[in-house]
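Run log, item B.
One chain of 625 residues. Sequence copied directly from the ordering sheet:
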Amino acid sequence: MSFLINKESLRYKHIKRGGMVKKYSVLVLSLLFLGLNLVYAGNEPSVSFIDPPLNFHTPGTELMLAGSNFDNVEQVFYNKVEMLGCRIVHDGMIDQCIIPSGATIPESSDDNKLITFKVKAPPPPSSGGVTAPPPKVEIKAFPLKPAQEKQISKKSLEEVFIEEVKKYPGLQAFFRDEAQKPFQYALKALQEKRHVEKFPQTHPIGRKNALKSWLKENKEWYLSYAGINEFMNKVTPPADKKPVITNIHPDTIREDFEFYIFGENFDQSVNVYYNNTLMQCKYRSPTEIECYTPKALSDDGTIKVVTSDGEAIYSKKLIAFAEPQIDSIEEDPKHSGIKDIYTGDTIRIKGNHFLGSSEVLFGSHKVQSIQVVSRYVIHVPVPNITGTFTLKVKTAKGEATKNVEIKGRPVPTLTSVPSEMGPDIDFKIQGKNFTHGMKVMLLSGTKVVASPDVKPTSQQEAEVRAPKEVGTYTLKIETAYGEAIWPSPIKIKKTPIITSISPEGNQLGNPVVIEGKYFEDIESITVGGENIPSNEYSVNKEKTKITLTTVSWGIGRLSLAFANVTLKTKWGETYKPIISPKESVTYNAEGHEEKCFPAVGNGCKGGGQEETKEKAQILWLAGGC
């Protein structure tokens, strides 16, 4: 049997898929579906038409070829460049050919010059001298029994056309009727193993999925040529019982507000939602529902009515008339605890119905870049103005106001800082605006080397704990509203250190000498609790030696024995026993030297029984041991 194909009479369906144009001939697909073969004269493969035609060709376009003698084709070429992925469907059809990127697409060409083939070598002649026909290529698939084939064909039709089955009574029975075209065509496609290469599971489910895939791909053809549209046109679908909303009154609503919904097909199972929030409603009739808006009404909302037969959404939003309200104004989160509002702050306005806020004003000053965090909170930057203003929040539903006072930004300043101090002591600084998270830093150059503790006692004064490390620093203070640097350096002075106490020249009766360092800015010296007047001692130039000119070692002030010497300077104080447990003193009592050790009783080394240093005992007298 042979067929003449008129290209101009073919009806095409164009489907764009990933940049490729795919056109399927309804006539060719129908002939293919019915299992008819196109027969052409000659043994060489030839092309009768290309789908899509030449004017749709681009690299990557998928082609379908119709023609004859395709059984022995081994390779397919597009303008002499091989096309990969081609599938020989049967003797008269090849599909899934992809135009290669390196191929030249001509402006016009004869199909058989544009598409060429390489065929397989013919098999050797049989004993009778006649060439044996090529073996039929069998697509492997899970084998099915006839009963399974029928069941899969019927179920696949019902699942692919589920929406039509729901809408048109009797369509399911039509699909199950084995005498009708839908079943017969589906069974034939299943037996011909259409699309099994896409679902290679070795299970009946794989065969079913392959058939469903083929049915979906050819659904439009199926509706037209398998008698489905004809059947549906004869059947009147059942009356639609889905709810319908025709009107809402009023369409401007407030919180906890009564309104009415009018329409059709309402029933006792009805639920009504405002922006997906279930509302309290009362069914009044199949055409009327009475509802109350939510108490926490948000912005304009959509009404949805849901019944057991479906749902309906009102075509336009209800206008939620909810005026904004201001409950409180909170300070900048960065400046916690500060109740005043300063220029440059970001305050938080708390209230309700702020969604859709369009403007915030301080008097006539409109604020830029407000942030609506939620319907309850707005973050607002405070403009650079001072005074008392009416804060106004305006939305499409109304406005809310509140009086506020904006103060100038309290930038800190310094007026008094001591130039010198001892380590690890408290000192006071004076200035302005010393609150609001005040910090003190000591700088060496530009580097922060210490952050001492600070305790503001007022906005004009603060106590600062000096660091333990001595040195010269720059003092800087910082608050939430700025910083200030004291222009003059401050010095952390060293506290005095006593290293030894002994008679001058280590001679009995000589003045007492205190040696050490940092003996400057002396405020007092006490020996055994007795204050030494400033005119009774002297300090050397190096500030390392103090001579008590009126205190003689071992003579006169016997009460000074075993006492502490306390030295207090402007930068700190220190003390030391007159005899240190780690020291010895050489003196001359009777013309010879003796070494006295820490007093632990009465006795001397050298004048009596020799004992070890640890057991030596000394007796303090005016003349020595």
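Observations after the first pass:
- The first strand starts at residue 12 and ends at 17.
- The radius of gyration is 53 Å.
Flagged for discussion on Thursday.
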